[in-house]
Amino acid sequence: MFYDFAVTIPAGTTDADPFSQDLNLTAGVIEKVSILFPPGPHGMVKIRLLQGSHQFIPTNPDGYLASDDEALDIDEYYELKAAPYVLTVLGSSPGTTYDHTINIRIGILRPEDVEKTSALTIALKKFLKLIGV
Description:
15% of the residues lie in helices and 48% in strands. It contains one helix and nine strands. The two termini are 34 Å apart.
């Protein structure tokens, strides 16, 4: 499954009172996150992704992502096991004059696909052990 969200951070949004938008997903394993910063914000638009109160991206609790005319592709393995299957984007843009839209794309493996992959990995490991590799 692949999700695509457009998140518009209003001009002048402060770090103390960030913009918030929920991204509704489904159960599974997040395997890929792409964050597309358009040309124009000059690194002044900052975002974080959280699940509940846990900061998911970037990993460091005080961190945020900011860029200009760049796509950030992040390989992940993050399980969404229990409802609600929601990530929250927190964004700020102190000192900006215009709103800026950041596109966030999320690839999720369905639980049944994860189980198939796990079973295949286990079978492959057993086979390799059997042949002495």
